[in-house]
# Entry
Amino acid sequence: MLPRVILLATGGTIASQPTEQGLMPLTTADGILDFMPSLRQLAHINARDVFMLDSSNIQPEEWQQLAQAVREAAAEADGIIITHGTDTMAYTASALSFMLLGIQIPIVFTGSQLPLTHPHSDAPGNLREAMAVALSGRAGVYIAFQHKVIYGTRAVKMRTLGFDAFDSINLPPVGFFDADGLHLQPEDGSCKPLAVAEPLAIDSRVFLLKMMPGTDPEIFDHILRAGYRGLVLEAFGLGGLHYIRRNLIDKLQAISQAGVITLVTTQCLYEKADFTIYEVGKGFQGGGIYGAHDMTTEAAVTKLMWALGDLENRRHLLTRCLTHEMGTVT
Ligand code: ASP
# Structure
């Protein structure tokens, strides 16, 4: 008997067609499969449209809807493929990595830089590779794109046009494809998924702030007044903020005391943040301020939203690796 795979379509370039307003997602999940009949030789595939959006329009409400659709589909599938726009795929894949903690089957995101119907499209190859990961039996949330398999919490979109659109940041890709097929790294057991109550619950009131020289400290007052409960702060280098002339540290401490939870990450794409090294990072110390270590910004934002979904029970998980999003904190 063929394995069972469910294709959940959400839109994106892969499903797009030219219109007078520009490229728009219009191809349904069944339409995607009609274009790829060879996939049906590998698995018994059910196709479902969850929504049909350019991924710029995909937000935490859609993550909830998609996570719910995955939960329902997982009961009747050996693997799930999710077609999705590339622009925010790293956010959705990371959010779902937390919201689906402990999932027992492969959940594989893919998409393309050119529509499926374009003669030079990268979609057929990406769909075939996503299918191989979906059939691998390896539980977890992944992105399969242009011969790489990346943990959902480690992907960053690096290119607007290049076919090799995603990289795995601060961790080698978990797998790759060559003429011999799919090669997956063995599980190393360093980041065992936890079972948590109501994992779907998230709170989207998180603000992302990138520091620049001269940032006005009043920005923190606005963040507090706007009702945000969490802040991801992209600091300089290993983790620094200016405090001469414009004192960002006092204001940050004030919003922390008011209950805003801050995750401090770095503007450098590679390697970790560690605000304990430099004197200019000392202002980060104190309750409610946590280091994001080597997490991507996408992972930090989605992990904080997820932690805020049940802060009482998840606050202590902010500094723990839950789904390959961070390396060991030393
Ligand atoms: N704008 C598209 C999207 O993210 C880009 C893509 O899919 O490559 O939906």
User: Anything to note?
Assistant: The pocket of aspartic acid is lined by residues 12-13, 54-56, 85-87, 111, 113 (CB under 6 Å). The domain at 4-184 is CATH 3.40.50.1170 (Rossmann fold).
